[in-house]
Amino acid sequence: MASSRAFSLYSSIPSADANHSSRIHPLTDDPPSASKQKRFDTCFGGPPDTPPDGPPSASKQKHPPRRRSILRRMGAAVDFGINYVFSGLARVVATHPIAVLALMIGLGVLMACGVFKMTVETNIEELYTPQGNIAFQNRDYVDSLYGYEALDVKVFVVSKGNTNRTLLTKPALLALLDVYELITSVNATYNGSTFNYADPRICYRPGGQNTPCQVVSVLDYWGYSRAAIQRDKDIMTTLNNPFVLTRYGQPVPQDWVVGVQTKDPETGEIAEAKAFLLTMFVQNNKGCSGSSCKDYYVDEWQKAIDAPVRAFSSDEIDVYLLSYWGQQAASDSAITADVNLYFASAFLLLAYSLLILFRRHPVHSHCYLALVNMASITLAVLGSYGVCSLCGLKFSLVTQSLALLLLGLGTDDMLVTMAAHDETARDFPNASVVDRIVATVSRARRGVIVAALTNFVAFCTGIISELPALRDFMIYAAVGVVLVFVYQSTLYVAVLTLDLRRQRANRLDTLCCVVSAAGPTDGCCGRPYDRNKPGVDQTVIGHWLPAVILHPVGKVLVVLSTLGLLAVGIYGACNVTQNFNIDWMVPDGSYVRDVYRIRSQTFPLASGQGALPVYVYTTNPTANFTTVTNTSSGSSRPEAWVVPAAAGDAASAPMDYFKMQDELAALGVRLQEDPYVSFSPPVQSWFANYLIWLSASPHAPLLDANGRPPTSELFYEWLHEFLGSVGRRFRLDVVFDQGNSSVILSSRMFAMTRGLNNSGQQVDAMNSIRASASSAAPTLQAFAYTFPFIFVEGYAVIQPDTVLAIAIAGGVVFAIMLLLLADLTCSVLVAVMVAAIGIELVGFLYWFGLAFNSVTSITLLLAIGIAVDYSAFTAFSFLSQVGTRQERARRALNHLGVAVFNGGFFMFLSILPLALAKSFVFQTFFKMFSMIVVLGLWHGLCTLPVVLSLIGPPPFETSEEAHQLRQGTASARVADAVMPDELPGACSGSACSDMVTPVKQTVCATMPSAPAVVMMTTL
What we know:
- 53% of the residues lie in helices and 7% in strands.
- The chain contains 34 helices and twelve strands.
- The protein is elongated and about 110 Å long.
- The relative contact order is 0.15.
């Protein structure tokens, strides 16, 4: 946050103002000479008057001269470089404004053309997961052997009007059957082909082509037969029959087909249920691995059933459809749902900019510059999007919010420039247009570059993140901040030059072709115009605020309030959890969001924050194989339980699973004992069920003492028999080599986790189950995998990534502050303020009901670059004042309090429209950025001034000498520094005859041959 009036402190142009005079830096400690005293008075018109707030206290009027420290000299060198570059650039722009304007507009349009190469990414997997992590590698292995995991379409059913009426009635069951028959009868068309659910390209049949489609619902109790439901005399008895099996010989999972159950306390049987869940599994024959790849036939079928199911009407039930196509469509809509908020933000900033730039004088007003500012920022935003798009970076909903942030930052830079421009108008009314622009840029340079540099550093540190959404946002933001800085330093300054020419020609603000007849003091409505009259904001922030907070009682209240705020933040930070749910990415008010609500109310285990289904896979490390698409079914999933194999490696024989029975048995046991694995349903182990079947089969007498097959040949022979009969449901859990049916390439066991309340618990569960699998079957190289683990991997890295990025950003920003403030004490105090803001910001995640995740981590990184400015400029102003600590704190607020407040208020206006956003990202940004502004202003305008008034360091040595200059005691010595015997060009000569105005000194300051004059004005 650059602060407008604050940066007159950095001016290279002396003036009669008390604060401006403090910028004159002596370079020597030589005794004064009469001739140089005379030269100083000749060029500057005598010593300045006493400051309007009166002389400082007697205790601070005299200080022994101190030699500047190395830190102060380094700061002076930095300021010399900044002033040299900025003044030179300003002179070029002010001399050729039309050419610069045309050049920057053309460059902006050229960069903006890159948006035509923009790739919009809405795939959550591609945004919020570390690419190439262990889960991705596991998925590649699983996909190569087991085919792509089947998709499902879920239909949640509640009573009509969701009246909590039980659905265990024949009319409700028949209505559910109507929904099922509707879905199976809908036709879809793709690529000239018409198909429905029964088509092999849609229906998923785990038992093979001639087996039923896999569908799971309460209708399994009646075999999806209307007649069976109608003739059933006691549906409650049927529903509670534990021996009813699904089409694939499995017990009907009651908890997954009927929801909101009420059970008889004596029998434990279901007495009533208020929700149904119909799950229909579909193929996933996409052309490549990854969520970005699609099965277009399944996509079109899901799209075709969407409208009919949502339009289904019944007197008994309401239905809610949840499909992958519907969720993706809802996520895609989030990109455009809140796009109008950008225009709302721009309107608010434009309105407030007009208010700030308006003057009660037809010529001195600058209203149209507000429009120029918006155009300048828009070019920077489009340029950022274009450049990054050309570099291959993807655009996402998170990146879209960057435009609002750049609006606030760019408008704040504009205010810095205009405040400096107003000051130079008062101080140097007779300067030429070019000299005025140079003076303006010289005064504003430090504030603009500090704001840009701190934000740039904060953004750049986020590039180390493994999460693409966070990394790409930071790259977009870093480029955007640089472009905003460039355009404010060139295009806006060029238009400002033209505006100054307009004023000199006495032409109207918005009608620049019309010459005004108004005089310099002829204001609007017949009232006189006085540009030096303080406004209401200056009275409140510059006078009333320091009078209140610097009063002894006020200091106590500020300190206690800050400690209380910090305590609240620490408590919240200790209790905030790490959590992220991809469901949040669906905008509020959408149909899918309503489905999520019903799902959480009726089947919480089916939601993303409930239990996770997990498979534990065993491998055959010594087997070499390849997989091909099964052309007979058009599916990458094996038709049988074999996978095509290559010739193999003669040097290493495939592992014999017969010898691995101990690990297979231990794997099932260890998995069930894992603290994160649920007992209901229990672990589904093909090996354990195989042994149970053997114990009751005719082969039982031939088993060994452990109840296992005695030889390898019998092990595989009986296993094939088991998988082809009662163990058919496990047929896809064991993958055999096509060339050798006695070689198992891989197998898997199924488990369900316990209910997991947040992503932190999901990370713990993933790590625990992985450890259990690898320790139980190390030879088989067992590993745990489920699709959600791809996202859980992201949850695992976001915290260390963010901590590292914050540490790096904080360290670099502290180094920048140390160099620019040139004072260790103030730099440490500013760092403490920023650290307090960070702690409180994390704490307010808890109080706002938010969690730590990839979205909130972005704002934590941004907080470093934004919040540091609120305190840094207060600290610098304090160092630039003389007097007691109390007096210097009061003067610091009087000088830049309004500027700091306006900077924060502009940032708040830029994100205010996000309060109406429907997307999770924008809602989170509004809450977080609001707190950044509030906390930054509190610590920068209240806490830090109070602390500085108590333990603040002494002022800059030059500030003390400037005070002596005001008292007439150091004029000659300063003149000796600023008026050397020989100056180039217009400034040469002992009488300084050509220096008509103080602006001429700036002309000298920008010349390479006059470094002493430039160094005169440095920190």
